[in-house]
Write a structure and sequence with these properties.
Layout lengths: L1 H16 L4 H6 L3 H11 L12 H26 L18 E4 L5 E5 L15 H11 L11 H12 L12 H10 L9 H17 L2 H11 L9 H9 L8 H8 L5 H4 L2 E2 L6 E4 L4 E4 L3 H13 L5 H6 L4 H4 L12 H19 L3 H10 L3 E4 L3 H11 L13 E8 L5 E5 L24 H18 L28 E4 L3 E2 L2 E2 L10 E4 H6 L3 H11 L1 H11 L17 H4 L10 H8 L7 E3 L4 E5 L5 E4 L4 E3 L3 H16 L14 E6 L5 E7 L3 E8 L10 H12 L17 E4 L2 E4 L5
Parallel strand pairs: 1-6
Antiparallel strand pairs: 1-2, 3-5, 4-5, 6-14, 7-8, 7-19, 9-12, 10-11, 13-16, 14-15, 17-18, 18-19, 20-21
Helix pairs in contact: 5-11, 5-13, 7-8, 7-9, 11-13, 16-17, 18-26, 19-21, 19-22, 19-25
């Protein structure tokens, strides 16, 4: 006990002698402290106190640094945002490709900005694939908690002592995931600050997710060269396979890439000393990766994932395992995809109160699943026929064309092509751009409007208020009490504004006609007479109901569509679009109900949660009886009128042609029980074309007869209030 007391006393004395203040030395003050310091340095201390060496000072400084680093790490750990343990949230910070499916559920297109990435479930990734990446990138993956401390502190010490200018080669798979997902904007930096944040994120990822979830996210987010983001894109691009079909040799080749994905990329576009030309694909196999691929196989054998024989067998020549499949955006779908993207963006913006820019970003980076309405059989039929120049009239400017096919009763767009002999993205879409419709406007603004207005008066117990405008000899005579399919309409000269107008296509006048035969032969004088009786306001309102979105309906403007040239003959201020016309004509076989167009049925996120469901909007345009009579009249235009070229054997086709002055535009808009379709042919700069609108009717038929179910379906049955009198249909209230 006494020895212990004496020793303590000596230690106390020694402690008193070396109790100097470092700040006194730094600030140049404290004379006694400085003397004590220099005495200590010369070994003049009392008792057994050890001299203060350079190494001891360095250790002290290092300890202070470690304590400061630990404190800063603890502070930073709690300042970094927590990570949502929801499995899908780990992908929220990276770009995921959105996928478009057709009506059969087949993938037809992708939407992304620069990174084409899709998610593959860990259950669909082969064991050899997972083990290959673990063997080369992080052999302690299943035992560590995010960091490999031994490698990490060794690298940090090398940085601090100047033995290395960078901190590299220390990242676990979890750290790489943290870098790709949460630090993508600074992941190329080789700094202590970035490594510090990476470590914190790695620790938090390990607390939030299981090892399988971490490995799945890592394989889905890593860049694997040649524009391949994630293992799904790499498997498809390099080998033409789904991930679950990858062989051991292919898995090892992919695992060799993360260290230098651009240098080791399995494919090259150009030849160099390390490539082998693959004539079949017109690409080069990058043999530079073979050495590292073999290292992956050796490590897998060393770590017990495979045996040595399997490793050697998998060391195949790279060109033997490559089967490149370079994804190209299908030009045949460009017009539809652009339209679809706009529709989805508008609906997302409206439902979730976001900007259009934000909605478009979500579409291109959010990994959405968009279930479109497109039918590839119909789409391909249009593109095939559009590529054949023999289907088009002669013109000094190459004729263009556009066509839209919609489904009767649903408004779903089954095909949309906005041009021919074009390529690229964000193309000028003639399917949604207005052109003068010519006589194809007559069934909408003239004939159906007249039948419906007559029905409106009949319901109120009133006869039609005919007006004698004084420009013809018929005046108010021979019409009957209402305008019906059997009404007499005399094809004669009309003197309007002091001149004979309009002229018929034949340049002749044929005398007595009925409503039906005037429609069958597309007689301009009869259409103008009927439209003037209907009135501009009523015709305009009907066009609005039909969904014609391009009408000039501001009567205060000097140029508008409140005139018979626009309403009866289609010389509209802006014209109309093939899409609007296809939707409008679908009203006739749908019992008088117009259904708004739609390009998709639903949109989900990549986990299947429904974000949007498309509900069609319906508008009652015509009474059922009126729709039945108009549909029958339009069928007779094909069977007994000027649109005979549109006929399809075994199908009930109705429709109307359209031609504009100087043969600038040819139209045929028609329908069957299941489909309504509008076809426009013309030039972009109004160049005269040979032929007539019969060219459009013939091409329409040639395309539509290729639709597999074109002869299927039935029109709505004859309504109870429709009667047949002497071979003509009338509603009960308007019968003669």
């Amino acid at each position: 006990m006494s020895g212990s007391t004496n020793d303590n006393g000596k230690d106390k004395a020694n402690n008193e002698k070396i109790n100097f203040k470092w700040k006194d030395i730094d600030e140049g003050v404290g004379k006694k402290s400085r003397k004590k310091f220099f005495k200590l340095r010369k070994g003049k201390t009392a008792g057994k106190a050890k001299p203060l060496t350079k190494g001891r000072v360095l250790i002290g400084v290092l300890c202070l640094f470690v304590f400061a680093l630990a404190g800063a790490f603890a502070y930073a750990y709690y300042s970094v945002p927590s990570i949502d343990p929801d499995a899908s949230s780990i992908y929220s910070n990276i770009d995921l490709s959105s996928i478009i499916y057709d009506t059969k559920g087949e993938e037809i297109d992708k939407l992304y900005y620069t990174e084409d990435r899709e998610i593959v479930s860990i259950q669909d990734i082969p064991e050899n694939t997972k083990n290959a990446f673990i063997a080369i990138e992080d052999k302690t993956f299943y035992s560590h908690h995010g960091l490999n401390y031994k490698r990490l502190f060794g690298a940090v010490l090398s940085k601090l002592t100047g033995r290395s200018s960078e901190i590299s080669g220390t990242s676990t798979i979890t750290q790489q995931l943290a870098r790709n997902v949460f630090l993508s904007d600074i992941k190329s930096e080789r700094t202590l600050s970035r490594k510090f944040r990476e470590m914190i994120y790695a620790l938090k990822i390990e607390r939030a997710y299981s090892k399988d979830e971490i490995l799945e996210a890592y394989l889905n987010t890593i860049y694997l060269g040649y524009g391949c983001y994630g293992i799904k894109a790499a498997a498809y691009t390099y080998f033409g396979k789904e991930v679950d079909e990858l062989s051991l040799a292919q898995s090892a080749a992919l695992a060799a890439l993360p260290q230098a994905p651009d240098s080791y990329a399995l494919l090259k576009d150009n030849e160099d000393e390390n490539t082998t030309y693959m004539k079949k694909y017109g690409l080069y196999a990058n043999e530079l990766v073979v050495e590292r691929r073999d290292l992956v196989l050796d490590l897998m054998a060393e770590q017990g994932y495979i045996d040595a024989a399997e490793a050697e067998k998998a060391k195949k020549k790279l060109s033997k395992i490559l089967h490149p499949h370079i994804e190209k955006k299908p030009k045949e779908l460009t017009y539809f995809t652009d339209y679809l993207t706009t529709e989805v963006a508008n609906d997302l913006a409206e439902k979730y109160s976001m900007s259009l820019e934000k909605a478009e970003q979500l579409i291109h980076t959010g990994g959405l699943r968009i279930y479109s309405t497109i039918d590839q059989d119909i789409q391909n039929a249009i593109n095939t026929e559009f590529s054949d120049d023999w289907n088009f009239p002669y013109s000094e400017e190459s004729p263009q064309a556009a066509m839209v096919v919609t489904e009767v009763g649903t408004g779903r767009i089954r095909a949309m092509v906005g041009g021919r002999n074009t390529s690229g993205q964000k193309l000028f879409n003639r399917a949604t751009s207005p052109r003068q419709p010519g006589s194809s406007i007559k069934p909408l603004a003239v004939y159906s409007a007249a039948l419906q207005k007559s029905e409106d008066f009949a319901k109120r117990g009133m006869t039609f208020p005919f007006v004698d405008y004084g420009f013809d000899r018929q005046g108010v005579y021979r019409w009957g009490d209402y305008i019906t399919a059997g009404s007499t309409v005399i094809d004669e000269r009309l003197f309007i504004n002091g001149e004979v107008w309009p002229l018929n296509f034949s340049r002749r006048f044929s005398g007595y006609r009925t409503f039906r035969t005037a429609l069958q032969q597309s007689i301009n004088t009869c259409a103008v007479k009927i439209q003037l009786q209907v009135g501009a306001e009523y015709s305009m309102e009907m066009l609005r109901k039909y969904g014609i979105s391009t009408i000039a309906d501001d009567a205060s403007e000097p140029t508008n569509d409140y005139n018979p040239a626009a309403m009866a003959l289609g010389a509209m201020t802006y014209g109309t679009t093939p899409l609007d016309m296809a939707i409008a004509y679908a009203t006739f076989p749908n019992g008088g109900v117009k259904v708004s167009p739609s390009a998709y049925t639903k949109v989900t996120n990549n986990r299947g949660k429904v974000l949007l469901e498309k509900e069609p909007e319906e508008t009652r345009v015509l009474d059922e009886g009126v729709a039945f009579i108009m549909r029958d009249c339009l069928e007779s235009v094909v069977t007994r009128g000027i649109a005979g070229n549109a006929a399809i054997y075994g199908a009930q086709v109705g429709g109307k042609t359209g031609t504009t002055n100087d043969n600038y535009d040819y139209w045929f808009v028609g329908f069957t029980p299941k489909y309504s379709a509008a076809l426009w042919i013309g030039t972009d700069h109004n160049t005269v074309m040979s032929g007539s609108s019969g060219t459009a009717a013939l091409l329409w038929s040639r395309i539509m007869r290729q639709v597999p179910d074109i002869t299927e379906g039935e029109y709505p049955p004859q309504p109870d209030d429709v009667v047949n009198v002497y071979g003509e249909y009338y509603t009960e209230k308007t019968r003669p």
